[in-house]
Amino acid sequence: MVEHFFKQVTVLIVLSVSLKAVVLQVEPIALKIDAAAGIWGSLADGTITHYVNNAYYDTLVTDDMGKHTQSAAGYLYVSIKHPFSRLPDIRFEYVGVKGAGTIIDSPVPDIPFYDSTTHSEIFLTQYDTILFYNLFENIHNMTVDMGVDFKYVVSQYVIDDLYVNEKSDSIVPMLYLRGRVERVFSPLGFETDIKYSTNGTSTLYDIRAKFDYTLKMKGLFQPGIEVGYRVQKFKIDGEESSFLGDVFSLQTNTNLTFDGLYGGITVKF
Predict the structure, then answer these.
(1) Is 177 exposed, middle or buried (0-12, 13-18, 19+ CB in 10 A)?
(2) In angstroms, what CA-CA distances link 259 with 33, 46, 114, 230, 262?
(3) Average pLDDT over residues 12-21
(4) What is the sign of the dihedral through the CA atoms of 79, 80, 84 and 88?
(5) Which of 61, 129, 172, 223 is deepest in the core (most CB within 10 A)?
(6) Looking at residues 218-228, what average pLDDT do you find?
(7) Exposure string for 39-48, b = 16+ CB within 10 A, e = fewer
């Protein structure tokens, strides 16, 4: 997992620098590239209800995901803005979160759940492709973007003692809104963004708020740092949902929250 994350960071840096260099050589297009990579200390909380149906067990179990410590999740993003107003700008994001839980309830008493030794794990790898338009930029020091996010979620839910290892994947369309406050020539900025999707039965959202500090340097790029807070919600009814239900299998209902502080290295081109 760690090795895979750092490979993605390397690819991100190489692609960003190469893209900017090509643009500068071809013609002076006002292309803006913002990129970052860092660590999110995400803490999982909530429950998973799963219908176990295999050769060994046929029962409904409830999984408490709130009894374990934080887990470091690597993240990265790159945002590309161009001067062609009729075409959307684009942003790519990656984050991989995980959580560990304990089975706390089952209607079958002879399964050893009640001694809190039956544990579980959940993995949610997320790739976001965001198409957005800039509503306004640097008006009274504020910038606002709005668009649509196509979040590709790969999930894996594991209960080793019950022989459960379920994988699923889905593309979830989400509304995207981003706001930023930054004074001209100031190195300090505040930014927040939200991705949101619901179909009435299930809801998924992803909210971030951060402060960043950018070194105003002459040259190809400007490095910086960012520190913020992030929260994700996965409230999924596997049986009743439409497009959101595919995030997990039909046998799995979730009411999960991942939240915590994050920090990383930024670069602007």
Answers:
(1) middle
(2) 27, 11, 28, 6, 9
(3) 48
(4) negative
(5) 61
(6) 90
(7) ebebbbbbbb
- Residue 139 buriedness (CB in 10 A; 0-12 / 13-18 / 19+): exposed
What does the alpha-carbon distance between residue 233 and residue 207 come to, in Å, rounded to a whole number?
9
Of 181, 260, 193, 185, give the one whose Cα is nearest residue 227.
260
Amino acid identity for residue 23 in this structure: V
pLDDT digits (tens, 9 = 90+) for 241-258: 556 657 777 677 889 999
Query: Do 74 and 96 touch, CB atoms closer than 8 A?
Result: yes
pLDDT range class, residue 202, cuts 50, 70, 90: confident
Q: Which residues contact 151 (CB under 8 A, 6 or more apart)?
A: 126, 127, 128, 171, 172, 173, 174, 195, 197, 204, 206
Q: Is the model's pLDDT at 81 over the cut of 60?
A: yes
SS in 3 state form for 188-255? EEEEEEEEEEECCCCEEEEEEEEEEEECCCCCCCEEEEEEEEEEEEEEEECCCCCCHHHHCCCCEEEE
Amino acid (one-letter) located at 11 = V
Quick one: which of 114, 108, 124, 122 has its CA closest to 160? 122
pLDDT of 138 reads: 77
Distance CA 79, CA 267 (A): 11
All residues at 6 or more sequence positions from 57 whose CB lies less than 8 Å from its CB, including other chains: 108, 111, 162, 163
101-136 per-position pLDDT tens digit: 887 766 555 555 544 567 888 899 999 999 999 998
